[in-house]
Amino acid sequence: MQRLRDRVIVVTGAAQGQGAAQTAALAREGAQVIATDVRPPRSEPTEGTVVARSLDVTDEEGWSALAAWLRDAHGRVDGLVNNAGITWRARVGQVAAADFLRVQAVNTLGPLLGIQRLAPLLPRGGSIVNVGSSAALTGHYPVAYTASKWALRGVAKAACTELGPRGIRVNTVHPGFVETPMTASAAPAFRAANLAATPLGRTGAPEEIAAVVVFLLCEEASYITGAEIPVDGGLTAHGGVKPISDALRD
Ligand code: NAI
After folding, report:
1. Residues lining ligand 1, CB < 6 A?
2. Which among 82, 178, 228 is the best mutation to test ligand 1's pocket, defined by most ligand atoms within 8 Å of the CB?
3. What's residue 46's pLDDT?
4. DSSP 8-state assignment for residue 137
5. Potential cystine with 49: which of 32, 42, 158, 215 (Cβ 3.0-4.6 Å)?
């Protein structure tokens, strides 16, 4: 049985990586996916109903145009996945103000604009999922990225409170290290340190994040809102004490 049959769901940053995996997973569940991105898709989805549209999540007019199109084409939207994101690997001492603001614009303002512009089209039972990061739960070194994802938690909490009375749910997933074009550019030491800190001892696949996103969009999650779900192989579960456990293991 398809769990999202005929549901209209918008995904941002859908051209590659996790957004592409979410798009494919949602289409398999019968959703009509509006796959948006600033760049064209790397590969065309092979299953289900997927419509690709151009959208820069920082562009207010772009969101308004998408909302107007959704109103005309479908009369509603049932779900939004705020997945688009960028990283910027500069440390506290080095980050330039312009880069800090650019990352906040995509990772924090973008999801807020999406919620603001699409919420009027969401019916009771609608669901919004934000893609945060394990960086939103820790003091991860790329400060612009970390700050943007902590701020996104605030956006999600406020939106959950605001939209709850209308029967709209707002949740956040926090991926750990996931194999996508974003992490392909990470230094080998970054990958190795992540693996050492991850109890499951491996990186994640985009499909493993997508499965949780799909669940949060489904009726099965009907009483879950304001929640934050790490999907990180246990990276953030041990609060930094894994090296102690590892050191004392027989
Ligand atoms: P990715 O870099 O492979 O894909 C990100 C997508 O977002 C790209 O298609 C890009 O074109 C799009 N994008 C960038 N700026 C945009 C804008 N202004 N408007 C619309 N689309 C834009 O990255 P990945 O890994 O798939 O990331 C997806 C989400 O997961 C992001 O929010 C990222 O911060 C988050 N995340 C990723 C982790 C990882 O290990 N890969 C870990 C934790 C969180």
Report:
1. 12-13, 15-19, 37-39, 55-58, 83-86, 106, 131, 133, 175, 177-178, 180-183
2. 178
3. 67
4. G
5. 32
Q: Where are the alpha helices (DSSP H) in the chain?
A: 17-28, 60-73, 97-104, 110-118, 143-163, 181-184, 188-197, 206-217, 242-248
Marked catalytic residue, from 14, 55, 145, 163: 145
Q: What are phi and psi of 230, to 5 degrees?
A: -70, 135
Q: What is the pTM for the complete model shown?
A: 0.97
For 108-149, how does the pLDDT look when each residue is reduced to its tens digit (9 = 90+)? 999 999 999 999 999 999 999 999 999 999 999 999 999 999
* Amino acid type, 102: R
Q: How far apart are CA 76 and CA 214, in angstroms?
A: 19
The Cα 24–Cα 9 span in angstroms is: 12
Mean pLDDT of the chain: 96
Q: How far is the CA of 107 from the centre of ligand 1 (A)?
A: 9
Neighbours of 137 (CB within 10 A): 21
Model confidence at 250, pLDDT cuts 50, 70, 90, reads confident
Residues 141-182: tens digit of each pLDDT = 999 999 999 999 999 999 999 999 999 999 999 999 999 999
